[in-house]
Design goal:
heterodimer, A: 521 residues, alpha+beta, Beta-Lactamase, Heat Shock Protein 90, 5-stranded antiparallel sheet, 5-stranded mixed sheet, 13 helices, rod-shaped, B: 237 residues, alpha/beta, Rossmann fold, Arc Repressor Mutant, subunit A, 2 domains, 5-stranded parallel sheet, 4-stranded antiparallel sheet, 9 helices, globular
């Protein structure tokens, strides 16, 4: 995720788990507006009783007061309910019970009314308060769960440690209801660095707390008493006894009723993030091991190829030369010529092999190419001339339209064309007939080398560009030719594709496609 | 007139037939020319199976065998052949395939030549292998060295050389195989017995002592040559 998207998501998450209304527990202490509200209910009850005392029977007034107590308890909680009950009893006694306008209690039964008022108010206040608490807590739990599940799905998608850390910060921000950040140390002895993209401003006490969390491997709260006014809490994430990172989040307010749930959720996401980081580390290690194994395999194949393909020509050359020198007089002229020819052929083979090796090394090392303007027709002519020298018996034709200039390195392009012709001759039944054609498209140039050989089997076709793959191990070759062509065309910005069979079940066409440079008008 | 061919017959010995087993046509090509020019007849095989068939059909006098064949490992060819014949076998192997060479020698190959090689080296090995096993002689001579077997004495330029019985046995074993490589194991088994097949450092000490006594320059020996990692060779002529 890029930094803008990350910043947007982080700030959006800031309020995704809403804070619970504070002091709404059933035993919350009364506040002034609540008391005024309760007084208003009582006043309404008194007024109602007064207006209806002539038309309705006496107990109806009592019920109005009773209703006021109930409302106050439901709306404002336990303590207001109790206070309202006492006030209601006193007011009712004062206003409506004989002797009027005194607080004297004439009948002992009236005390029972007071007790009833108190019970109803207390019970209702308690139940209503608890209900509200429960509802709030459920809402908060749902929000936390939502964060946890969103975090889990973010982690499932995370394919690199940075993504895990970003998800951790985003969701810790949501849970802490304030900014969060991640701190790293390059190694256990270095000091921590803020690596978050959007670091909130940290003060000295915060940084000291983070450092302590990192050194001591235990959570640190910079806002604890005696910590000189930091604002963050820091949690270290441990793997194999080492802190991999420290998560900092805005301190949870001690007043928040759900702060423990939030702290627990933050610990959960830290744990999950840790697991995800570990999984990524293992995946990376497995990937590294696989790469190393492939490289090792390639190296072994290269060594085998080197030992065989360099040695055999050398053995022939050395053997033939020593034969000529030591047995020269006894060798018939035809045998002498043949030995000299063998030396020439093997020296050619060595030269071509060394060329290929050098090209491959250069391609693998990723050396930069020196692209210049090249006439493809010249390159094709050079490759064809070289191929005709190497394979005097093969019939090689080049039928070309007018070709535009391209940007290329001509030695490399020639090598790859030569390799294609070489391959085509090798896999053809003599006399080999090789055709080179070219096609100009608006944005690219395609050079095609077609043979009339037996074609390539479908399963071999998929592998022909693999280094050291040889379709027919009985034929001489290194399995490098096509790999190098492929590498060269890719380096020139083009592509190499194989097509087989070409016509009625035989023949192979290799297409080199090269981009045509845009000609500025 | 008709007697002429009969008269000339004893002058031309039948040419030895050499079987060349190598899957590289270019190697076959130059070996064919070189061996033909050196007075040998040649036949060829490109596979291990082909080699076994050619041995049975053509009865060659010696075989030049490349260890890296496409079908059958060269060592398997030696093993199969040695079960029924003592046809001289010269193994061609890459320079760094030391283990291969040792195993081939232990399986019964007579000698080896490391690729790439000069033709002279191969021809020398071939001659050494084809040399008829010498009649048991009482006196072996090599340059200034004279070994009197019945007398158990050795002289160099006429001066007596004092050897321990083991040194004497070692010297006789080497001198009886001129030009041929003897592997550490072959020497150890014959001189010290089956329990000492791996005591190469021990052998090295004895060779060192022997060189001190018989070589004119023990630090640059020209009688007992070391084949590094493989064994020792008694230099003939």
């Amino acid at each position: 995720m890029d930094s803008a998207a990350y910043a947007a998501k982080t700030s959006a998450m800031l309020t995704s788990v809403p804070l619970l209304p504070q002091q709404e527990g059933w035993a919350a202490l009364p506040r002034l507006p609540q008391m005024l509200g309760a007084a208003l209910f009582l006043a309404a009850a008194a007024l109602g009783t007064h207006l209806t005392k002539d038309s309705l029977p006496e107990p109806s007034g009592l019920f109005l007061f009773f209703f006021a107590v109930l409302l106050a308890a439901v709306r404002f909680g336990f303590w207001i309910g109790i206070a309202t009950a006492i006030a209601a009893f006193t007011l009712f006694n004062f206003l409506f019970v004989a002797p009027l306008y005194t607080l004297a209690i004439a009948k002992p039964g009236d005390l029972l009314v007071l007790a009833e008022f108190l019970c109803v108010a207390g019970l209702t206040g308690f139940l209503a308060g608890r209900l509200r608490e429960e509802a709030n807590a459920a809402k908060s739990r749902a929000a936390v769960l939502e964060v946890l599940s969103a975090f889990a799905s973010d982690l499932a998608e995370a394919d690199e440690p940075l993504a895990v850390e970003q998800a951790l910060v985003i969701h810790a921000t949501a849970l802490a209801h304030g900014p969060a950040l991640v701190l790293h140390a390059r190694d256990p002895n270095a000091s921590l660095e803020v690596t978050d993209l959007q670091p909130p401003d940290l003060q000295a006490p915060d940084l000291q707390a983070a450092e302590r969390a990192f050194r001591r491997h235990i959570p640190q709260d910079a806002a604890e008493p005696g910590q000189q006014g930091g604002r963050y809490t820091f949690l270290p994430l441990m793997q194999q006894g080492q802190v991999v990172l420290v998560l900092g989040y805005h301190r949870l307010d001690a007043q928040w009723p759900d702060r423990f749930a939030r702290a627990a959720a933050i610990e959960v996401i830290c744990h999950q993030a840790n697991l995800a980081l570990e999984r990524l580390r293992f995946a990376q290690a497995a990937e590294d091991a696989r790469t190393a194994a492939t490289r090792e395999q390639l190296r072994a194949a290269l060594l085998t190829s080197l030992s065989h393909d360099l040695r055999t020509p050398l053995a022939t050359i050395l053997g033939a030369i020593t034969s000529l020198r030591q047995l020269g007089a006894t060798l018939p002229p035809a045998a002498r010529d043949d030995l000299a020819l063998a030396i020439e052929e093997e020296a050619q083979r060595l030269a071509s092999y060394v060329d290929n090796l050098l090209h491959m090394t250069r391609l693998q090392a990723g050396l930069s190419l020196h692209l210049i303007w090249v006439d493809p027709a010249d390159v094709i002519a050079a490759a064809v001339a070289r191929a005709r020298r190497a394979f005097p018996l093969a019939e090689i034709t080049a039928d070309l339209p007018d070709l535009p200039m391209i940007r290329a390195e001509s030695a490399l392009l020639e090598q790859s064309l030569f390799n294609l012709i070489d391959n085509a001759v090798k896999f053809s039944t003599p006399p080999a007939r090789i055709a080179i054609t070219a096609r100009v498209l608006p944005a690219s140039l395609t050079l095609t080398v077609t043979d009339q050989g037996p074609g390539i089997a479908p399963d071999a076709l998929a592998q022909i560009f693999t280094p050291f793959f040889r379709a027919n191990p009985n034929l001489p070759g290194t399995g490098l030719g096509l790999t190098i062509c492929h590498g060269i065309t890719a380096a020139l910005g083009g592509s190499l594709t194989a097509e087989s069979p070409v016509a009625d079940g035989h023949g192979t066409a290799m297409h080199i496609s090269l981009p045509l440079p845009k000609v500025s008008a | 007139m008709s007697t002429l061919p009969i008269l000339s017959k004893p002058l031309t010995l039948p040419k030895p037939l050499i079987l060349i087993v190598d899957d590289e046509p270019q190697i076959q090509r130059f070996l064919g020319h070189a061996l033909a020019a050196s007075g040998y007849d040649t036949c060829f095989a490109a596979t291990g199976q082909g080699a076994l068939e050619a041995v049975a059909a053509q009865k060659p006098d010696a075989m030049i065998l490349d260890l890296g064949l496409p079908d059958l490992n060269g060592k398997a060819v030696i093993e199969t052949l040695r079960a029924k014949s003592n046809l001289p076998i010269i193994v061609l192997s890459a320079h760094d395939q030391e283990m291969e060479k040792i195993m081939a020698l232990d399986l019964g190959a007579n000698d080896f030549v490391a690729k790439p090689f000069g033709i002279g080296e191969l021809l020398a090995r071939l001659r050494a292998c084809l040399r008829k096993a010498p009649q048991p002689e009482d006196i072996l001579r090599q340059g200034p060295l004279v070994i009197d077997l019945p007398g158990h004495t050795v002289t160099r330029d006429g001066a007596p050389v004092h050897l321990t019985p083991t040194e004497f046995d070692l010297l006789v074993m080497l001198a009886r195989n001129p030009g041929r490589v003897l592997s550490h194991r072959q020497i150890l088994l014959q001189i010290w017995g089956p329990a000492h097949g791996e005591d190469v450092p021990y052998l090295r000490v004895f060779i060192g002592q022997l060189r001190q006594k018989i070589e004119s320059n023990p630090s640059a020996p020209d009688l007992i040559r070391t084949e590094p990692g493989i064994g020792y060779r008694w230099m003939a002529d």
